Amino acid sequence: MEEKDKLDKIVEARLKLKARFEEKMKDTPSVSDPRPMGTGETNRHGMPKLPIGQIKTVKWPVLDLGFKPDVSLLQWKLIIDGEVENPVELSWRDFMDLPQTEDVSDFHCVTTWSRMDVPWKGVKLADLAALVVPKPTATHVLCHAYDKYTTNLSLEEALKEDVLLVHTADEKPLERDHGGPVRMITPQLYAWKGSKWIKRIEFLPKNKLGFWEERGYSNTAYPWRNDRYS
Ligand SMILES: Nc1nc2c(c(=O)[nH]1)N[C@H]1C(S)=C(S)[C@@H](COP(=O)(O)O)O[C@H]1N2
Ligand SMILES: [Mo]
Prior knowledge:
globular; 6-stranded mixed sheet; alpha+beta; 5-stranded mixed sheet; OxRdtase_Mopterin-bd_sf; Sulfite oxidase-like oxidoreductase; Sulfite Oxidase, Chain A, domain 2; OxRdtase_Mopterin-bd_dom
């Protein structure tokens, strides 16, 4: 297939998928909450820039399970499978050939720090979903990482425009400390929902709790509702 046709196909599939989840997306608290909690100017989704209980940080703290996998670009692969029509296994090259997105967004960690206006570059999860075509029965994803971490998301959160698999942050290749070569970011949810060192995205027909979600963190993780624990 011609490169352009391939891109057109991804864009078309993404729009179809979006249409399927549009109403549910509009109802998610991080865009629709009538009484969001927090302070400061409003962010681009109409929520207070600093969510309740958060403190702005300039430095970027590092949080993990005590083990930082060392994944070379040659070894790196991304599996996307489960409840999809067209499972794929992407090499680094395949991944970098996909449509690339730049965005600037905020990073809210449940341990009460927020890092504002981070410039990112990567691939939209929605574009990856368009590539694999989730079955009509798919409702959630479980992300798996090279360090055995997992975290779960509903599709109405996962398919948001600002959910990216990033390889670049602050105009530099994403550091291993922060999940490089590639991590996910979830600017509208607490940052534990964004898997560092991401390895596999498993589409599921129902919700399945991830590592922290099984250990008492919230399933939904809405920063403007102080939704930290379940
Ligand atoms: N693979 C993996 N991803 C992970 C984690 C982890 O331990 N392993 N920790 C999560 C948590 S709790 C947070 S707050 C953020 C921290 O990202 P940072 O270390 O880049 O600040 O990554 C999330 N993603
Ligand atoms: Mo965290």
